[in-house]
């Protein structure tokens, strides 16, 4: 085959397989009709965050190299970051039925003695009506017994979700940091 023919053939193939490049990464914005009604779903479960033992569900990734900072919050000093993969269960008993996992990161974000985390987690459910669906929670998480947290989005049946969490510590060990948290979640979703 002559070089020209090969080149022409290549051009044809390229024009078929390569989408037209117009130098834009966005489409035009347009108004859409949103549903006038949305669903509200209530979720209730317990999150088990375990730092102690041979099989912890949360592990330290990094912590600051400062003695002063560590003295304020010895377990979770300011600037330390943890990864977690916490089971979600129907009851406060860790042996009760597991219905999902909370996976994400939390970081210690208070310079004072008022231990505060930034919690960013994807909570995916593994059974029932919402099997495979998830809520995304991302917000300030102070170490108080009862707190409110924000549901900022979701996946699956919770796509486009918004909502809030009432998060209550039913168990917290101040020595090793292990916690069992009761979550009442109100989710608004399409
Ligand atoms: C949840 O969904 C997964 C994936 O579709 C499936 O394999 C699993 O059996 C389901 N679990 C329950 C308890 O329905
Ligand atoms: C808290 O953790 C410490 C150290 O692991 C342990 O000795 C103690 O029994 C725990 N306290 C409670 C109330 O579980």
From TrEMBL:
Signal peptide: 1-23
Localization, UniProt: Secreted, Extracellular space, Apoplast
Statement: the UniProt record of this protein carries the keyword Metal-binding: no
Biological-process GO terms, alphabetical: phenylpropanoid biosynthetic process
InterPro entries: Allene_oxi_cyc_Dirigent, Dirigent
Keywords per UniProt: Apoplast, Secreted, Signal
GO cellular component: apoplast
Tree of life domain: Eukaryota
Pfam (any one): Dirigent
Record note on quaternary structure: Homodimer.
Name of protein: Dirigent protein
